[in-house]
């Protein structure tokens, strides 16, 4: 899990999350590249508590950002971006790249969301990394909640987007979790890697209406063209 910071190095504001997918690249939401404090300027890996600095924490500058070419800040489509780190990450037990899920059909209806976001609607960012168990919400049911959104002129697009909620529990991702992963753990994986199916994108009301995630499988060819061009 990556923590994204904005502004000057002596006054960094933490606002979004992301996922390390190679030693040089972090996957996040396109809208997380920008903030009222300026563009993303710092990345932390291996961090659990924002206010606690340990030997596991690695801090990076931003070499380059790659927005999906079809992303527009005026709409909620193609909300995906890559951040190229200013040097390779040191891969070890506490910092490992996640895998990408490559097909539309989901392996399960149960996932995990992670981030430092608020734990209640309109709350503040949390100091300690949180995780939440989430359940897939069928496209047609979720689309009903979002059919009148100005930033979704064509409604939710199933190939590009997916929804999840607490599955009956009052649980959700919330403000500050944007860019972080919707993921599952591969049972029996000796490397203890997680696989990302979605990127936290947007919602209406935390834990009341299902949140929307960018569906990673659709964007794998674009990701590969930048991260692994050869």
TrEMBL record:
The keyword Hydrolase applies. Keywords: Disulfide bond, Glycoprotein, Hydrolase, Protease, Secreted, Serine protease, Signal. It is found in: Secreted. Residues 1-228 form the Peptidase S1 domain. This is Trypsin. SMART domains: Tryp_SPc. InterPro entries: CLIP_Serine_Protease (IPR051333), Peptidase_S1_PA (IPR009003), Peptidase_S1_PA_chymotrypsin (IPR043504), Peptidase_S1A (IPR001314), Trypsin_dom (IPR001254), TRYPSIN_HIS (IPR018114), TRYPSIN_SER (IPR033116). GO terms for cellular component: extracellular region. Belongs to the peptidase S1 family. CLIP subfamily. GO terms for biological process: proteolysis. GO terms for molecular function: serine-type endopeptidase activity. Pfam families: Trypsin. It comes from Oryctes borbonicus. CDD domains: Tryp_SPc.
């Amino acid at each position: 899990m990556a923590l994204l910071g904005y502004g000057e190095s002596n006054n960094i504001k933490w606002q979004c999350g992301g996922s390390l997918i190679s030693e040089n690249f972090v996957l996040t939401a396109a809208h997380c590249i920008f903030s009222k404090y300026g563009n993303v300027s710092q990345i932390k890996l291996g961090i659990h508590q924002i206010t606690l600095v340990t030997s596991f924490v690695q801090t990076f500058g931003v070499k380059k950002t790659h927005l999906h070419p079809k992303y527009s800040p005026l709409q909620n489509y193609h909300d995906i971006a890559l951040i190229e780190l200013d040097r390779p990450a040191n891969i070890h037990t506490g910092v490992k790249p996640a895998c990408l899920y490559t097909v539309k059909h989901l392996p399960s209806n149960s996932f995990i969301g992670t981030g430092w976001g608020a734990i209640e609607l309109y709350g503040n960012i949390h100091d300690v990394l949180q995780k939440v168990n989430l359940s897939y919400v069928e496209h047609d049911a979720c689309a009903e909640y979002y059919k009148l959104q100005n930033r979704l002129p064509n409604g939710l697009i199933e190939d590009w987007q997916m929804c999840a909620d607490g599955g009956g529990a009052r649980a959700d991702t919330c403000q500050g979790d944007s860019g972080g992963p919707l993921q599952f753990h591969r049972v029996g994986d000796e490397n203890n890697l997680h696989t990302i199916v979605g990127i936290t994108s947007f919602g209406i009301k935390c834990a009341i209406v299902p949140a929307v995630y960018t569906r990673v499988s659709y964007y794998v060819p674009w990701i590969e063209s930048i991260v692994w061009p050869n």
